Amino acid sequence: MTGQLRINGERLWARLMAMGEIGATPAGGCNRQALTDEDKAGRDLFVKWCREAGCKIRVDAIGNVFARRSGTDESLPPVITGSHLDTQPTGGKFDGIYGVLAGLEVIETLNDHDVETLHPIEAVVWTNEEGCRFDTAMMGSAVWAGAMPLQDAYALTDRDNKTVAEELTRIDYQGTHTAYFGPVKAAFEAHIEQGPILEAEQKTVGVVTGVQHMSRHRIVIEGKETHAGPTPMSIRQDPMLALADFLPRLYAMAEQHAPDARLTFGYIHTLPGSSNTVPGQLELTVDIRHPQKAAYDAMIAGYQEYVQQACDERGTPVSMECFWEAPGVEFNADCVNAVRKAVATTGYDSMEIVSGAGHDACNVAAVVPTGMIFIPCKDGLSHNEAESAEPEHVEAGCNVLLHAILERAE
Amino acid sequence: MTGQLRINGERLWARLMAMGEIGATPAGGCNRQALTDEDKAGRDLFVKWCREAGCKIRVDAIGNVFARRSGTDESLPPVITGSHLDTQPTGGKFDGIYGVLAGLEVIETLNDHDVETLHPIEAVVWTNEEGCRFDTAMMGSAVWAGAMPLQDAYALTDRDNKTVAEELTRIDYQGTHTAYFGPVKAAFEAHIEQGPILEAEQKTVGVVTGVQHMSRHRIVIEGKETHAGPTPMSIRQDPMLALADFLPRLYAMAEQHAPDARLTFGYIHTLPGSSNTVPGQLELTVDIRHPQKAAYDAMIAGYQEYVQQACDERGTPVSMECFWEAPGVEFNADCVNAVRKAVATTGYDSMEIVSGAGHDACNVAAVVPTGMIFIPCKDGLSHNEAESAEPEHVEAGCNVLLHAILERAE
Fold it and tell me: Quick check: B259 and A212 CB within 8 A?
């Protein structure tokens, strides 16, 4: 019965700490940016551990690393699991790294207990997820999934005008394998949540059902500058009055699409900004997110309708512009179910959750069946040297990953 | 029958233009700031005209000038009417000056037609109404009404550190009479509206019933900076959500107190002002005005209640501060009625109106029965070299002033 199988939490934790030494910052974080000497050292250490675990290493043309444990039928597509080893300049020890080392730990555990699987299992390192040195986040997985041409990725430059291609060659991670996905049975990524929900709900594991659709919009409303005293309300052209109309309607719309809807008015500004003058212009931004496409589309349509309607009624000309958009992801039902079953098998307190941020799994999910597993992180902090996760959560998430992979790899 | 009596519109207009030559600016406005050589020249011209009209001149200790036409009973209190001759640095030809010269024109008209009045009539020039060279607006009338100590006014300095006392002496307008009101039967001030209402309503004369109560308030709401993606709406501390609650309630409150209520949100700002971060702080200002004390007080109470309630409900700590307040004025019923009757006598299109700005009449009204008359000004512009009024409106307002004074002076 593999249901009793558990990973070695101490080994996984020790490897996280060992990896954290590479590019360690004085404040306890990591600076291991993509394709630097530190990234090479991290990759080398990972490859060494994988080889010691009996894996075959394959590196593709964009530097993605695949560490393969054979299945009993090598003609079958593998179950892959991974994340990234690169960090932000003032990043932490867990973001990405956890998902990579959890994949290796699953392989180690299967080895320890002589468990064979029908399908091969591969632990993966995706190149340049952070996009801070070379300005395209989730680059390696994007190339692999066909979302970004290889040559475009190669041509990206850092501040010293070094290209991705040059730096891949320099650190010896420009592999000979095609950077393009082949048949894959299932993909999983374990990750810290990078948000406060699991901690607030005191859950150990999050079953990630998808990633939000998200976009950001700029609203500019024209008013007419008039004196606060003599000008009657009835003849004003007051953009704040239009705001008073649509702001509660938009929040009510988010309520209709609760609990997954996200609506954020981060920036708001009036011109001329004088306390006794009706604003001549009001500018604000709205960030709109929802994991389900239909609900997201309804929110976008509602936003446009309510703002336009309020501004029409108040006689305040308005312009609306979407200045950033990222499509959402709904993870594969079989993979999400595999995670659900794994949670049931291991007995951890869990909840279903939607990712508020992007991950390599978003690119992967576009081409192969994919799922994700979240564990809590302290105060929801990430991209921060103070990023922190509890050893028992690290262990729990990896146990869930183990059983989700076992379910799919048979 | 004095009901047929009309002022000489051409003489009044000619005097307005003549006064406008003193301190004339290239753009057609006036720069005749308080207690400058130009102010002295303007005062001298006014005094000369008044002496030619047979008036006795009295100057008080703060430089207010009273030009008196005797009544048939000199023991009775006078009816006084006036405004100011000083202007903004880039002021116009009408703001203040109109009220002063209209007073003189009433006296000239009574002389022309040998009309005697029971009560004396005085045309008044109030010192330093604009408060731009010496930073206290409506200074002369404030001292006269006991609202400002004479020595405080004397001690005010301009940018060159010259005091009001020095400059009054220098231009020879520090009079020997006490700068303190005595018995007055009634006071009137004719003025351009300095707002757009009469023009919009196509009215020739405004019967001014009062001056708004007004105050400005700063609202600071504390939020919690959180990421727009992962943080559920239900656990956010979002000051914009509190705003969505109270903004429409405040506008609805202004609607309840329409048409005289004024509510203006001129300044609004978020910190950190990032489109994908829930604001950590929201600051905005609200300017609240109403001519009736009860309605004004209700609006202030409503503002405080609705903002506090919304912020309590949304868990966003709030601080509210009143950083400026000016009490309103309800003009004397007898004086307002005298203006109403004068409008009926002269037959001009008129409307009742509330002043959005302060005037010498506000100080005067605190101690003697007072009324005001407005005439339209182009585009509501004032404190601007483009300030403009039509000759027929100038004439109409002065005819109304004539009959209001006649009614009170018997």
Answer: no
**DSSP E strands, B229-355:** 262-264, 268-271, 277-278, 281-290, 318-326, 329-330, 350-355
CB contact (8 A) between residue A259 and residue B234: yes
**B321, B217 Cβ separation under 8 angstroms:** yes
Q: What is the pLDDT of residue B45?
A: 98
Q: What is the ipTM of this complex?
A: 0.71
Is A245 in Cβ contact with B193 (below 8 Å)?
no
pLDDT tens column, A335-368: 999 999 999 999 999 999 999 888 999 999 999 9
Mean pLDDT of B149-172: 96
CB neighbours of residue A113 within 10 Å: 11
A232:B197 CB<8 A: yes
Q: Where is mean pLDDT largest: A399-408, B273-282, B323-332?
A: A399-408
CA angle A271, A275, A276 (to 5 degrees): 100
Q: Kindly report the average pLDDT of chain A as a whole number.
A: 95
* Cross-chain residue pair A265–B240, CB shorter than 8 Å: yes
Whether the CB of B234 is below 8 Å from some CB of chain A: the reply is yes
Residue B11 pLDDT: 98
Residue A227 contacts B where some CB pair is shorter than 8 Å: yes
Cβ-Cβ contacts under 8 Å for A103 (sequence gap 6 or more): A67, A81, A82, A83, A122, A123, A124, A190, A401
Least confident of A39-43, A151-155, B132-136: B132-136
Contacts of B226 in chain A (CB under 8 A): 196, 380
Residue B330: DSSP 8-state: E
Residue carrying the six token digits 């790899």: A409
Token digits of residue A32: 């291991």
- pLDDT band per the 50, 70, 90 thresholds, residue B1: low
Element (H, E) at B328: none
CB distance A261–B212 less than 8 Å? no
Which candidate, A151, A170, A150, A146, places its Cα nearest to that of A160?
A: A170
Contact B208, B351 (CB under 8 A): no
Note whether A375 and A351 are within 8 A (CB). Answer: no
For residue B370, CA distances in Å to A259, B275, B308, B329, B340 come to 62, 54, 39, 10, 13
Is A277 within 8 Å of chain B by CB?
A: yes
| One-letter amino acid of A8 | N
**Long-range contacts of A302-307, Cβ-Cβ distance < 8 Å, separation of 24 or more:** A302/A249, A302/A250, A302/A253, A303/A217, A303/A250, A303/A253, A306/A245, A306/A246, A306/A249, A306/A250, A306/A253, A307/A219, A307/A242, A307/A246, A307/A250
- By three-state DSSP, how is residue B223 classified? coil
What is the mean predicted confidence (pLDDT) over A302-325? 96
How close B274 gets to chain A, by Cα (Å)?
Answer: 5
Helix H or strand E segment including A73: none
User: Which residues 6+ apart lie within 8 Å of B4 measured at CB?
Assistant: none
Q: Report all structural domains of chain B as residue ranges with CATH numbers, in order of start.
A: 2-211+328-409 (3.40.630.10), 213-326 (3.30.70.360)
Q: Is A381 on the interface with B (CB under 8 A)?
A: no
- Gap between the Cα atoms of B196 and B186, Å rounded: 28
What share of chain B in percent tops pLDDT 70? Answer: 100
What pLDDT does residue A184 have?
Answer: 97
Token pair belonging to B204: 């020739």
Give the Å distances, CA to CA, from B366 to A20, B76, B187, B209, B287: 77, 20, 11, 14, 24
Residues 41-80 of B with CB under 8 A from A: none
Asked if A70 and A122 count as a contact pair (C-beta separation under 8 A), the reply is no
**For residue A15, which phi and psi values (nearest 5 degrees)?**
-70, -35
Residue of B nearest to A326 (CA): B229
Residue A89 above 90 pLDDT? Answer: no
Question: Is residue A228 scored above 90 in pLDDT?
Answer: no
